[in-house]
TrEMBL record:
This is Nucleoside diphosphate kinase. The chain holds residues 307 to 468 of 468 of the full protein. Homohexamer. It comes from the Eukaryota. It is found in: Plastid, Chloroplast thylakoid lumen. Transmembrane segments: none annotated. Residues 12-149 form the Nucleoside diphosphate kinase-like domain. Belongs to the NDK family. Major role in the synthesis of nucleoside triphosphates other than ATP. The ATP gamma phosphate is transferred to the NDP beta phosphate via a ping-pong mechanism, using a phosphorylated active-site intermediate. Shows the highest specificity towards GDP. It comes from Camellia sinensis var. sinensis. The active site is at H126. The lineage of its organism: Eukaryota, Viridiplantae, Streptophyta, Embryophyta, Tracheophyta. ATP binds at K20, F68, R96, T102, R113, N123.
Amino acid sequence: MLQEQEVHAAEMERTFIAIKPDGVQRGLIAEIISRFERKGFKLVAIKIVVPSKDFAQKHYHDLKERPFFNGLCDFLSSGPVIAMVWEGEGVIKYGRKLIGATDPQKSEPGTIRGDLAVVVGRNIIHGSDGPETAQDEIKLWFKPEELVSYMISGEKWIYGDN
Ligand code: GDP
Ligand code: MG
């Protein structure tokens, strides 16, 4: 049984999700966490941090040529961020669906940005956009020992057991 659980856990994907300073200041931490939790995804790491500007530049390195890069990095480092790792089948791609399109004007109602944000520069949440980015971002934000692997007793009610 334990072996089965270990195999199941090994198949599980992980993604990096951050509530940006606007989401924290607007009191949306619990709201955002609950959307991932209610879906059936599992929280395996969480902390509150104020990233330095240098750290924000590392996080958004792929956008360094964009005109909004400097403002974006200033903003990400302007206050507390909730950094998290979520685990589950398909969590990288589906996490992006829960989040909605980058521009909240284009995000569908029912998504986090669609329901809770209005402009692209204050879209309250970050989520990794693919498996490689997820791995890199988890490594940037967390030490390996900050990630906690555990079973939830009701997991078979989410994934089944056969
Ligand atoms: P995401 O993966 O959906 O967060 O979008 P991107 O990786 O393309 O961009 C990262 C972040 O940069 C977005 O979440 C926005 O906060 C910001 N951003 C993206 N495009 C624009 C833009 O055109 N203008 C401004 N001001 N910010 C932008
Ligand atoms: Mg992105």
